[in-house]
Write a structure and sequence with these properties.
227 residues, 0% strand, mainly alpha, 69% helix, 13 helices
């Protein structure tokens, strides 16, 4: 029954996506995404309207949020991954399970780009570790040693919305581990995603760290932006 419900839901969404496809806008979207993904050319406000109606239908179907998310992720057009991300963002904490780390890892490392990884990391992953802090050591321990740059970036940014709950000692340990990595997305994550964000809540703590951190270039510029 669940498979049938998902098929019906996907058929409904396919129809709406195709109806609102804009090939001329798709060209620019594909170019913006470095020619990595196909696109319908649907702008965010229009997609949001499509989603608003579709999410109501999804709620009525009462299906597993991961089953539906994986179906969305398997589609060629990038808009489907955006729908999946917005859907996962809506997941209440009570439906987040301790086994979700493997599912998150698969989505983070599939069809990866900053536009998907950042939203998943700062939303679902962030909520996952707030609910299961005992998972930080084994899961972040695995991801920080991974050869996958997007998992490394997720380690650096999953606390983006944790505010006063942010584990600064963990963050500093991760920064020290990755600060010599010159990959753009890692340097950006070090400076922009957490140090810059955390400086809004505890600027003195960030200033003190920056005095001896030895950060340079992009990471330092981003970290210092609000100081």
């Amino acid at each position: 029954m669940a498979d049938s419900s998902i098929t019906q839901l996907m058929d409904l969404l396919h129809g709406e996506m195709k109806k609102h496809a804009n090939p001329s806008k798709a060209v620019n979207m594909v170019k913006y995404l470095k020619n990595q993904f196909k696109c319908y050319g649907i702008k965010t406000p229009i997609r949001n309207e499509i989603q608003k109606v579709w999410f109501k239908q999804v709620k009525e179907a009462n299906i597993n949020h991961w089953d539906l998310s994986y179906n969305l992720w398997a589609q060629d057009q990038r808009e489907y991954q955006y729908v999946a991300i917005d859907y996962l963002k809506k997941t209440p904490a009570k439906l987040i399970n301790i086994e979700d780390d493997k599912l998150l890892e698969e989505i983070i490392t599939t069809k990866s780009w900053w536009d998907s990884v950042d939203l998943i990391a700062s939303n679902y992953v962030g909520k996952y570790f707030l609910k299961f802090p005992e998972q930080i050591e084994p899961v972040i321990g695995r991801w920080r040693k991974s050869d996958n740059m997007w998992l490394n970036r997720t380690c650096l940014i999953f606390q983006l919305k944790h505010k006063e709950k942010l584990d600064f000692e963990l963050l500093i340990g991760l920064i020290e581990e990755f600060k010599s990595n010159q990959e753009f997305f890692i340097q950006k994550a070090i400076g922009w995603s957490l140090l810059r964000q955390h400086s809004k809540f505890d600027p003195e703590q960030v200033k003190t760290y920056l005095k001896t951190a030895g950060l340079k270039g992009l990471a330092l510029r981003e970290a210092s932006k609000y100081l």
